[in-house]
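Annual report, structural modelling task.

Input specification for the acetoacetyl-coenzyme A complex:
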Amino acid sequence: MSYHLTDEQILFRDTVRRLAADRVQPRAAEIDRRGEFPWDIFELFSEYGLVGVGMPEQYGGGGADLLTFCLAVEEVARVCATSSLIIAAQHLGAMPILVAGSREQQERFIPEIASGRKIAAFALTEPEAGSDAGGTQTQAIREGNHYRISGTKVFITNGGLAKTLVVFASTALSRKTRGISAFVVDGESSGLSVGRIEEKMGIRGSQTAMLNFDAVTVPANNLLGQEGEGFKIAMRTLDRTRPGIAAQALGIAQGALDVTLAHLKERRQFGKPLIEQQSIQFMLADMETRIEASRNLLYKAAEVVETAGFAQQASPDVTRYSAMAKLMCSDTAMQVTTDAVQLFGGYGYIRDYPVERMMRDAKITQIYEGTNQIQRLVIFRNLLEKGTPE
Ligand code: CAA
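The model returned the following structure:
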């Protein structure tokens, strides 16, 4: 193992592992089946300080470094991806405020997000601006002391539940990425309505919704940074949150390997436990190798991003490591869960066993917070900026 966890991190990881096994795992299949937001798990995580674990202590968060935050997401995802997304999505909703908000804005918005009193959301994606986030069409027009926001956002995690949203809207369409601005919007504003709530393949307990903004009034002092800085705020946010999605993917993969190993020790065919078949042992060895390689890259990425802090400047290292971790861990999750279904045979394909859920949940990690094709683009661009290795 090349990574190093402190005694504190190990203790924290083991505590979350026990909490997840005792309180989350028994709910996982039902959350998936019902496809409803698990309020009980949200309350549990609020009570245990997991909802704001990676947010600053001065605002009521847990003050955890990024690696510790990732450990929390990983351990919960090992048993329930939807539940791990509660932690990751809250973190994503808070991050633009932490990256670019003034002290006054952070004091105003973060404590309620960190404590779980308000659910947060990050509203960037639009029907015509997915991977091309710079194509944002939602507009914010300044009128005196406020802005009016109009447009449509789609695929918004926590959409319809969030009481604090960070919304990206253009204040100067002709300036493209340089015309986008970021606003904190009250989820109960008049003119803000919830459109379709999506029926999803996986992470089914997480609510994903379309949001319509019809001249929603936002006070001018809810603008994060300056007008035109929104795109960079979104990018700097994603640099700091993609490791959380990588941790979710890693946890899903680890969870799938755990249950597969246990099953193969029990299930007998041809007169002996399946685990004694060499072809199966080789598959398990590949799964373990992929998981451990992914874990090493993610923990390294968490360290790189943490060391850079919230620095104003884009750092090629931060961007590249964050994207590489997300790319590798999510591909691992897809491969490992697909192999897990195969190793369970017919049982892998039915709802009585958890691996089919894990395979469905794994898929989204290759898509959200930037598809893996976008991660490759980002990695390549930053590779050019990296310069010659020492
Ligand atoms: N940090 C700081 N600044 C950055 C940056 C970064 N990581 N990346 C780019 N920038 C800056 C550039 O330096 C450039 O600045 P200038 O205007 O001063 O030159 C500006 O931003 C524009 O950058 P690009 O020219 O690189 O922009 P682009 O249009 O080519 O696109 C992209 C870049 C990487 C493709 C970007 O659009 C992207 O990341 N797309 C994916 C969007 C995404 O991840 N969406 C996820 C939605 S959230 C979600 O999924 C949440 C959920 O449900 C849980």
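The mean pLDDT is 96.
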